[in-house]
Amino acid sequence: MLLMAWFLLPLIRVAAQTPRINSLEYRLAQTGNGADSLEVLLAICEQNFSLSLDSLRVFASEAKSAASVYGNQAEVGLADYYYTLCISREGLADSAIHTCDRWLGRLSYSHDRGLYVRYKMLQVGLMGLISRTNEALDSAYSLLKDAEGVRDTALQIRLKSLIGSTFSDAGQYPEGLGWLYDADRTSRDPQYDSLKNSNVLFFNIGLDLNYLGKYDSAGFYAERTISLASKYQNRFMLAYGLGLKAFILSYTGKPALAELPMEESMRIFFQVGSIYGVINAMTAMAKYYTAAGKPGKGIQVCRSALSLLAKYPIVPREVIYTQIASCYKGAGDYRNYASTLDTLMALKDSTYRVNGTDALVALNARYAISRNEALIARQKLQLIHKDLWIWGSVLLILLISVGVWFTFQRNRARHKAAVTLAEEKERKRISADLHDNIGAYAAAISAGIEEIERRNMITDPEFVSNLKEYSAGIISSLRETIWAFNRESVSMTSLCDRIKIYIQKIQKVYPGIRVRLEESGPGQKTLSPVQALNIFRIIQEGLHNALQHSGGTEVLVRMTIQGEGMELTIEDNGVGFDFEGQQGGGNGLNNMKKRALEAGFRLTYCRAQPRGVRVRVVSEG
């Protein structure tokens, strides 16, 4: 079986000389020598499996020479890669591995990924070909960890396919199938179908299933290999698919049906010029001849394959010796059969000493442990990232919330300041209007009445006296309003002083009634101008009612400050009034209630003890 050599074969495009190569050769003829010729030579070498081995050698040598003069390091490395690929196909595996080692010492997966992967895959394939399977697997596992770390899907598929075919070559078909299926599951994206097929993934799955006796499933993968090879015009894989189909037909007792696909497979391999493919096809052909009852032809095919291997030692000889032994047994030539088995045993003992099954299992177990450790580390890192993301999101939300709150508070403060400033301007404007207009007119009226009185122009003194009283009242009311509106806030001390002045003035009109003011609590408490003016008007109205209608001898005004709250009471010792008849309240009481409500206070009234009326205004603070 030993299909590891396919890793020496990058993507195959078309067999023999293709229109693409013809076009590139024409371009090369037009460019002559120089940097442009290097670009074209490298492009031709990229089509390496559409070239014969001799043609590849010529173009790779020219590319290497041109790169040494005109190329940068990447171009020098790429030209040397194609030359190394050429000598590896000629069977010079040790020399090719030496070149790979030299370049891999200069390159790194992180900085020179494309060129590094080319040399690494070539190195792994070559080590497998010369029975350094353990080293090949160890190197493949190491590269696979790198590919998984950076999530290089294409490289993961190639490496898992390689590892799977290596276990299958060692006869560990279930283990090999596990890796091959894993390669297929790495991505179900159809864009990787061409890569999977050209890396012999579906062919190897079908071959393993055939060896395990699952012929129907094997046939499915053979047809899939053929279908995808036709879709992507990959004649190399078409040959593999046809060979697998013939192989399955031979195993299921249908050798006659296997002959046509087998011959077509062989023909394509010869056209492509793939030594490895030809040897595999010859081995399969020998199996077919043995199954078809023609072991002599099978022996001839195997001898031709051994002659080819002598010139191009591209696969281990035990592959051919195993098949030729089967042919001798089928022909009844037990002497040559026994001799071939001895040779085969010696070859296998040598190989087993280097690449024992136990060693392969140990390598796989070591990789599995390393992979699980890396997986656990990645999961821990993901959890840390997730926690950081969550806490970062929470912190961001908190910061945004705090920012929004501060912005709201700042805007609110600005709005409040703007409103306060606007109110202040409006108060000053109203005060100025009242003073300049209404106040001027009221003063003019008062002066006019005095002039009329001085000239004895009106003979009714009481009428003139009333006019003077009214004009004086207007002026007094304006002064009180202007006093309140000219301030941003009014302290309780200032309000009480204003009330005292008013009481002194009104006391002269009612000498038989004693009016007094009591105040308690901090005088620094402030009221807004609207509150202060309304409280003053309530006291005016309350005193007016008590002095004119109570019939009492004493009126008490009490101002009490407790914390942020305020309480105002106006109490007389008069006869009171009919509370039931005044449930709706008169105009005076209604005005007082409205003013209290406007100022944010609550007004109530009740009978005083032992007699009289008590009006109570309360602010809860």
Describe the SSE topology.
Layout: H1 19-31, H2 35-46, H3 53-70, H4 73-89, H5 93-106, H6 113-129, H7 133-149, H8 153-169, H9 173-185, H10 193-198, H11 201-211, H12 215-231, H13 235-251, H14 255-272, H15 275-291, H16 295-311, H17 318-331, H18 334-354, H19 357-454, H20 461-485, E1 490-491, H21 492-509, E2 514-520, E3 526-527, H22 529-549, E4 554-562, E5 565-572, H23 587-598, E6 602-607, E7 613-619
Parallel strand pairs: 2-4
Antiparallel strand pairs: 1-3, 4-5, 5-7, 6-7
Helix pairs in contact: 1-2, 2-3, 2-4, 3-4, 4-5, 4-6, 5-6, 6-7, 6-8, 7-8, 7-19, 8-9, 9-11, 11-12, 11-13, 12-13, 13-14, 13-15, 14-15, 15-16, 15-17, 16-17, 17-18, 19-20, 20-22, 21-22, 22-23
Describe what you observe in this structure.
- The protein is α+β, with helices and mostly antiparallel strands and 621 residues long.
- Among the domains are: 1-131; 488-619, Histidine kinase-like ATPase, C-terminal domain (Heat Shock Protein 90), CATH 3.30.565.10.
- Helix content is 72%, strand content 7%.
- The protein has helices spanning 19-31, 35-46, 53-70, 73-89, 93-106, 113-129, 133-149, 153-169, 173-185, 193-198, 201-211, 215-231, 235-251, 255-272, 275-291, 295-311, 318-331, 334-354, 357-454, 461-485, 492-509, 529-549, 587-598, and strands at 490-491, 514-520, 526-527, 554-562, 565-572, 602-607, 613-619.
- The strands form two sheets. Strands 2-4-5-7-6 form a five-stranded mixed β-sheet. The protein has a two-stranded antiparallel ribbon with strand order 1-3.
- Helix 9 runs antiparallel to helix 11 (201-211).
- The longest helix is centred in the middle third of the chain and has 98 residues, at 357-454.
- The chain is rod-shaped.
- The two termini are 98 Å apart.
- Residues 1-16 and 351-356 have low confidence and may be disordered.
